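Task: sequence design from structure.
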């Protein structure tokens, strides 16, 4: 028989989000009348907006005509969409041929790991979106666990805690490593300032490291002083790749559309441009994003689409505000609860001093019938925290806020 890929046996346990779904389903089947509200997985809930729906429908109709039909397209995406991303989202700081349109940020993160192979060392913010660590373990970049901990050898965990305002000590970045960095951050909701990203870029360059900058939530930034892209920082073109997504701003979590920016200056140790290998990888194991999804993405970057998208994001940010307010009542003060994030990000990050994340998760599920995400699922530094997602219908958010405001632990 074929041997199991031993890297998979290095994975700690199940992937976080299916585990949460499993617990949610188990609770719902035992308590069918509980009126469970999910603020756990960051999954969009509001309908697609009219301008974008029209563009999707028009593309479907075109595919039903002899002249309008198209089959496989350019693997890197429609040139019109690549132009639009460069112009609208990056103010032409990057060129359209550095944009690679994909089926989503998560899928690109997986492909990027394949690009760098199993010998690269990896640094992650702790806590972090689990795909960075689990994906690295799957391709062997992280090898085995460090005994007595939940950490992997080969992965440097850079704690992001309230003490450092959720920005890591960049001195921890190893030489020649791949550094995953997410801003606005999932799960902490923190957004790195221009000064902080300048330090990050400077350190990465000094250490010969490459930053994988995940900007999946960039559209939630409302403070104009905060950078939306790593390419707003001088020197980033020589040390960074950026991954972006239409999932959260446009509601394309199910439609699937994202992109990756690989600047031409970025090179491997032997001088080979990273974009050359990325292009080869992308065109070999990816066949291009759906042409229907791309038509929708294009519409979202037109003036009418941008207005609609801003309204959708405003809705989720207002949800985040409601959740934050609910967690700042007197009972939470008595428990010493601290609330972070949720102002330029869709996640509210909450610390319950002295408590375990999964215990808080269970208590909130049992007492409030609300699903959240335990912070420990994002890394060791997430212990004692939980994450609330602001993706939800307003009625559900208001009801969840009511229930949460009465929580006593
Ligand atoms: C549950 C920092 C959510 N099944 O939709 P994509 O692939 O363009 O983007 C995914 C993504 C990329 N980068 C960051 C993210 O937070 C996400 C989505 N994360 C969450 O609740 O943390 C959805 C998770 C989904 C998953 O595993 O991604």
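Answer:
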């Amino acid at each position: 028989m074929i041997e199991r890929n031993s890297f998979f046996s290095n994975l700690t346990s199940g992937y976080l989000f299916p585990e949460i779904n499993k617990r949610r389903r188990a609770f719902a089947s035992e308590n069918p009348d509980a009126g469970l509200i999910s603020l756990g997985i960051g999954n969009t809930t509001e309908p697609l907006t009219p301008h974008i729906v029209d563009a999707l429908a028009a593309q479907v109709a075109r595919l039903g005509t002899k002249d309008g039909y198209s089959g496989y397209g350019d693997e890197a995406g429609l040139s019109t969409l690549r132009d639009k991303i460069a112009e609208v989202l990056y103010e032409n700081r990057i060129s359209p041929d550095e944009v690679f349109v994909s089926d989503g940020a998560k899928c690109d993160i997986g492909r990027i790991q394949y690009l760098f192979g199993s010998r690269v060392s990896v640094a992650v913010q702790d806590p972090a979106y689990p795909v960075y660590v689990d994906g690295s373990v799957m391709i062997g970049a992280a090898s085995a666990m460090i005994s007595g901990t939940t950490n992997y050898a080969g992965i440097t965990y850079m704690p992001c805690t309230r003490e450092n305002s959720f920005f890591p000590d960049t001195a921890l970045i190893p030489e020649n490593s791949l550094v995953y960095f997410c801003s606005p951050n999932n799960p902490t909701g923190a957004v790195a300032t221009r000064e902080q990203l300048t330090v990050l870029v400077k350190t990465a360059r000094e250490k010969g490291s490459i930053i994988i900058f995940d900007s999946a939530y960039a559209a939630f930034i409302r403070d104009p002083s905060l950078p939306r892209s790593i390419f707003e920082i001088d020197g980033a073109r020589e040390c960074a790749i950026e991954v972006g997504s239409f999932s959260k701003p446009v509601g394309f979590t199910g439609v699937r559309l994202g992109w990756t920016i690989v600047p031409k200056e970025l090179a491997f140790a032997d001088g080979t441009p990273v974009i050359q290998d990325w292009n080869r990888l992308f065109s070999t194991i990816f066949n291009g994003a759906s042409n229907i999804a791309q038509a929708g993405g294009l519409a979202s970057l037109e003036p009418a689409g941008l207005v609609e998208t801003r309204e959708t994001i405003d809705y989720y940010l207002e949800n985040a505000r409601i959740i934050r307010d609910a967690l700042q009542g007197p009972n939470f003060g008595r428990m010493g609860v601290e609330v972070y994030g949720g102002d330029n990000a869709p996640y509210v990050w909450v610390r319950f001093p002295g408590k375990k994340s999964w215990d808080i998760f269970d208590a909130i599920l049992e007492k409030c019938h609300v699903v959240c995400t335990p912070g420990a699922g994002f890394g060791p530094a997430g212990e004692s925290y939980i994450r609330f997602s602001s993706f939800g219908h307003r009625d559900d958010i208001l009801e969840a806020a009511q229930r949460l405001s009465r929580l006593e632990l």
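The chain has a mean pLDDT of 95.
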